[in-house]
Each structure stands twice: as structure tokens, then as C-alpha cells.
Write a structure and sequence with these properties.
Layout lengths: L24 H19 L3 H27 L5 H32 L8 H13 L3 H28 L9
Length: 171
């Protein structure tokens, strides 16, 4: 795969979100190019879409986890197995729903100044297949991650409840 030329692999909102490029000399060069060509506002291009996307993303994950947890609870699984499977279902659902949003967000972040495409232009250009490109890789990452997250949360919750700790996060 060819390396992007200066200013192509845009580094965006580096202080809040993970950069699109790996850390290193290329990142500082990309940051300098974006600052020179687009100013400080260019560094934070796409941040609004990211912030708007977080709430629905997490809502989908927790909703799917809850549904899967209820359905799987009737099967008599061990607590750990139940949490891992329900967590995986939540992670997969999150990927299926949010992958198109991520693809559009990345496309918007990569556009150059003066090149204004709206979300619908990107959707029309890529089509459904393009919006789900590489979703299997995202599921391979987020499914196990969500499984571990929910299993660890359930374990911590049970452990703290055993110590007599009560309150909002444990209810």
C-alpha cells in the first residue's frame, strides 16, 4: 500500500480521539501540513460527527446486550458465559449499526478544504457494500472487546456487592 502524500492521511482531533495515522514522525508532519493548510479548525474537522455518533453507538451496544442477556439467561449458562455471549452480541450489533457512520465520518475527514461533499453524496458513491467494507475486521475487534467489557463489569459489580458496596452504578 502506498504511503499518503503530505496532507492526505489527515490527522484529526489528536487530543481527544486516536489519530488516523500511527504515532511517529509522519504524524507530526501530517499535523504540520493540516495546521498550515487548514489552520487549527482543520485539526478538529470531523469532531462534531464523532461526538454525535458516540451516544447512538453506545445505546445500540447496551440495548443489544440487554436483549441478548435476557434471551440467553433462559438457557442456564454460567454467569461468565452469559456475560461473554451477551457482550459479544452487543459488540456485533454496534458494528453493524455504526460501521456506515464511521465510513462516512472518515470520508468527510479526508476531504480537502474547499471540497465539500455531504453525507448523502458519500453514501450514493459508496453504496451499501462500500458502507460495510471491512465490517468483519471491526466485528473481530469490537465483539471480543465488548464481551470482555461486560464480563469484567459483571464481575466487578458482583465483587463490590459482596463487599456491601451499594449505589447507582451497581443498581
Amino acid at each position: 500500500m502506498a504511503q499518503p502524500r503530505a496532507g492526505e492521511g489527515r490527522l484529526r482531533y489528536p487530543l481527544i480521539c486516536k489519530p488516523l495515522l500511527a504515532c511517529g514522525p509522519a504524524s507530526s508532519h501530517e499535523l504540520a501540513v493540516v495546521l498550515r493548510e487548514e489552520g487549527l479548525a482543520g485539526v478538529y474537522s470531523g469532531l462534531g460527527a464523532q461526538l454525535v455518533g458516540v451516544a447512538p453507538e453506545k445505546s445500540v451496544k447496551f440495548f443489544a446486550y440487554g436483549l441478548a442477556h435476557q434471551a440467553l439467561a433462559t438457557l442456564g449458562l454460567t454467569s461468565l458465559t452469559l456475560e461473554l455471549l451477551a457482550g459479544t452480541a452487543g459488540g456485533i450489533a454496534q458494528c453493524v449499526v455504526t460501521n456506515p457512520l464511521e465510513i462516512v465520518k472518515i470520508q468527510l475527514q479526508l476531504q480537502k478544504r474547499g471540497q465539500k461533499r455531504c453525507c448523502m453524496d458519500i453514501v450514493k458513491k459508496l453504496g451499501v457494500r462500500g458502507l460495510y467494507e471491512n465490517v468483519a475486521v471491526t466485528i473481530a475487534r469490537d465483539g471480543p472487546s465488548a464481551a470482555i467489557f461486560f464480563a469484567a463489569y459483571a464481575w466487578c459489580k458482583a465483587y463490590l456487592a459482596g463487599l456491601g458496596v451499594q449505589g447507582f452504578p451497581l443498581d
